[in-house]
Amino acid sequence: MLKMAYSVRANIPLRCKWAGTTRCFLTSERLPTALQRTNFQRSSCSDCIGLRLVSNKGRKITDMSVLQEISSNVRNMKQLENSVLARRTTQIKEELRQGVRKSYKEVIDVSWGDPHKAGVKPLSFVRQVLAACLYPQLMDGDKLMVDVRQRAQRLLRACTGGSVGSYSATAGIPEIVQRVSEFIMRRDGGVPSHPENIYICPGSQWALTNILTVLVNPEASPRIGVLTPVPCHSTTVLSLTALGAVVVPYYLREESGWALEVEELQRALDSAKGVCNPLALYVINPGNPAGYVQSRKSVQEVIRFAAEKRLFLLADEVYQECVYREKTEFVSYKRALAEMGLPLSDRVELASFHTASKSLMGECGLRGGYVELVNLDPAVMKHVNSLFSTNACAPVLGQIALDVMMNPPQPGDPSYHLYMKETQHIRTSVAENVKRVDEVINSLPGFSCQLVEGGAFAFPRLFLPPKATKRAEEAGMQPDTFYCLRLLEEAGVLLSPGTDYGQKEGTYHIR
Questions:
Q1: Which residues form a coiled coil (predicted)?
Q2: DSSP state of 56
Q3: pLDDT surpassing 90 at residue 53
């Protein structure tokens, strides 16, 4: 917390010398009259986030540095290279708005996995159910389909007080948790799923961070390590760093379609000796940013490895609906574990994550996801429940979106035809885009892209000439960041540099 000699009024601005901005920063009631015109100024050194209280005459009144009060783990969090691109994108959009002539009229942003931002239309059934739950009077007439009204009525009956504005139970609305459990059983061919092991949460990443909080003891010596794939989406790596864990990288084999190989897991585990205590193994299937889908055999091999090394399995399976190749299927880690039988099926500890953000719905902003826990000790589950209770409950609208995702309209329902038409359009469009990516990117000189089997991204490799890497070095940037910045400036296309996701030394990628 900030240690202040005086509190500050709401409208006193913070002037940041090195960023050139003015904004309200601190609020309070009491301020001595002599200091009412005092300005706050940020240190001119961008490496220090300390604040100085400076009088109008420039006299230093008191030091209020907060740097030593910030967790060292938070300070160790690496700023993403993409932040440079994001700032420049904002500037370019403003330039275009002001009429600055460029070779393009708008910025095309394909750097984030936000379907609606990219132009995918929301599913009618989803939005109609949400609208009816938010404003029940919409159900008074016959403007909404019967199954929409019935679903909304059922969901409202499950809400405390019949309103989406009420809190729910910590783990989620019980009726929705039950239907999530039923969905998992259908997906996994009848493998039992128990509602008491499921927590609905504000997105899968929130749930993953909470489970990591249980696993990672920041005071442990040696520190806790988590085996993490390379490439890997950046938010997980940042979360691990913030919690004080050691990221133990294992490299997916790019030339084999980003294959996850047990030999590489063993190499990573060996590299951790004397550095940390590896406690968990994090896997992403289907992959992000690399669009691979693990085979059943690969999943089974990883489970055996985790069992042998006594590692907690963290299975990020949020893209499970996004599989594009005819002979490729998604097999959940839970299903594979159950099918392997005893003793593994009741011994390997597993957390599986899914979300409404990355399905065909693409409802990123509603923040609805879940985690299912398998084979955890009841004593540990008590602590998990306590931790999840600190945030009261997931947004109720996100829970409703999750319910609709798990239980879409069925044949014979009035909304079924339109729902199938809309979802099939999304599937077809994405499949065509995947095919186009494979064909176009691999036809370009200096590019190589593995076939995209699933997920939402391609992760092509760049082969940059020495002159380009030298220019990047002179600009103080990673080569792939420099490439992305040039592409943004000259073509108005925003990509993410591979360096934010991890890559083998000497290789460069874009997402």
A1: none
A2: T
A3: no
